[in-house]
Amino acid sequence: MYLNTLAGRSYNDLMQYPADYDNKELNLTNPSTFRDLSKPMGAQTIDRLLQFQKRFVEWDDPTGSTPAYHYGTCYSSAMIVASYLVRTEPFAQVFLRLQSGHFELADRMFHSIKYFWLSASKNNMADVKELITEFFYLPNLLLNTNKFDLGMIN
Asked: Are the C-beta atoms of 62 and 50 separated by less than 8 Å?
């Protein structure tokens, strides 16, 4: 576990993580409860995979300088990590530095695991973010114990 911690990996070497955000109890015998780790976030549904493949095949850059691509954003970055951990220090300060000293609009900040899962796995073609390890062991990432003024979602 210590080596995994140093490498920034999960504390558990699991092949799947639960991704059921609708039910009050997880049914660990139902395959649809789990995120398919054999596929990237852009291929979690057939429709989403086909949309990304279509974009790749139909890509036309008139300048010829940008090759075809599947994903126009990264699955992880300093901003993504800081946005997930914005309620905890030192990540709140990192977030503020990356956002010119201000918190993002509340509707655009991380506020719902289910909403962000659906965005990254199904609903938003510009979103292929992966969950970070802290989702599976750090409940404080969901609590605003520092009482930051994060605004109100509409």
From this structure: no
